[in-house]
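Subject: for your reference before the review

Hello V.,

The reviewers asked for a structural picture of the protein, and I figured it would be easier to keep everything in one thread rather than splitting it across files. Below is the amino acid sequence we used in the manuscript, unchanged from the supplementary table.
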Amino acid sequence: MPKKKIRIEYRGGDGSPKSSMEIVMESKKDQKRKSINGADYKRLIINAAEAIKKNEREINDLNVFPVPDGDTGSNMSMTISSAADDLRKLETEELGEAANKAASSMLRGARGNSGVILSLLFRGISKSLIGIKEADGKAWAKALKEGVQSAYKAVDKPAEGTILTVARRSAEVAEMAAEENNSIEYVQEAAVREAESALDETIEQNPVLKKAGVVDAGGKGWLLALKSMLSSLRGKDETPAEEDSAYRESVVRESAKFDDFDTSEITFTYCTECIIDRKGTEPSDGLRSALSAMGDSLVLVDDEETTIKIHVHTNEPLAALELASAFGDFVNVKVENMRIQHTSKITEQEGTAATAAKEESAPAVELKKYGMVSVCTGDGISGIFTELGCDAIISGGQTMNPSTEDILKAVESVPAEVVFVFPNNKNIILAAEQAAALTEKKLIVIPSKSVPGGIMAMVQFNPEEETEENREVMTAALDTVDSMEVTYAARDSSFDDMEIKEGDYMGMYERKIVSCGDSIAPVLQALADKAVENGRVYINIYYGGGIDEAAAESAAEIFRKKVEPAGGSVDITYGGQPIYYYLISAE
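And here is what came back from the structure prediction:
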């Protein structure tokens, strides 16, 4: 460390030198930050959130593990941003209070495997800082270590070459650095250096990363967080410049090459996540074992008092959620089909590559008159909308309402002058309508409140008709079909004189509960009775991702016995949707 010598002279009354001495001091610019308090920690988290947010796309483009779902950066950004938003409202000098607030916010806001692990790292840090007003280098190193222990404890099968590796190695070096110099800045510098080295090596530690030619996406996010926190300790609240050696062009690619993978390499199709508002104190060890047997990439966080957070890749999302529901009420649920994400990513990359190769010589894209955008989830449902002429699919629905920005991007991606949007959910209609004011295209929202309604409306579209005529015909078509759903009850409740037990099968007709119970057949029968009562005898059943064809055929038989005597018919179609065992249209 650079030093500065200072000579001090002591003079007598007449000004003549009497004695002198030399001391060695650090120059001001070389002095290290000794400790942090609650206000400082607030700045650290906000700075880290900004860094990850600004680099979100780069992190997404690195993601390949455990499957190329491409949302690591988004998940980490949304997770830590939830803490930054809450901390901006918090005024405290108490470090423990600020750390606890950040950890609590991240646990609630955690998304995806990477987001959960990030929240766990900060949860462990928070536990280490309980009751502490300020933390020096040793206290901070201890907190980083406890963060790593918290993350490793919750991950079912920790793998090398991931964010866990980068976090563990940086914490280990931080602990050694604290013995040399107890300033928090010195310790953080050591942690950053080791994180950079560890991230570089992830490409060799994980065969999937090596095949794709990239470093670990989650590890990259953690490095950015550490670097931005160091920057904040130095008084700089801006994202550091990208200088990571992991981006050497001769060693790694800028993003994962997804066509190196085949969807057959994806063993478990559905990325299933939920947060449970815990009821009772029953240990979750049995739940962890059951979920582990159903899939992989399991992360289960249980604070044993208020919250359980679950992430798992499985082929049985409905069964996984039923197991989880035994521990309390759902705060939120997300299920995504990773095969569709993988295929979409390949298409996106191929399209980007083709555009880059032709952009200098290719003529401007000629806009067609009409385009279509639909919001839905489930590979079967998405395929139906695509076959009907939909240009863009927004993955979302009951548990994943897309934002206005999501809808706007989809609309802008469609090369058409007029774009019809099918929200297929009443909670998405307003967001779709807001997007109309943000685009130069003519955006028309067909107010479909369900998937069956959206399908019926699209069937009526006529490319030869004028815009307003199509709007009127498609909107009118929404009233020609009734929608039914079969799902499960998330909690005990009393509704319309029905006592509903958590986990019961629940049948809804036009979003009104008509039947519930511990057996699905009576629920289906009640829906069939209701359809005939309303004069709807042409039935199409879309069965979900956790239902096999034999079970779907049994459901269809219940409807056939009711509608065929009335001159109706029943068809079954694979929908692949999560959460809902069946989506049913009745005409």
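For the response letter, the relevant points are probably these. The mean pLDDT is 81. The two ends are 80 Å apart (CA to CA).

Happy to draft the paragraph if you're swamped.

O.
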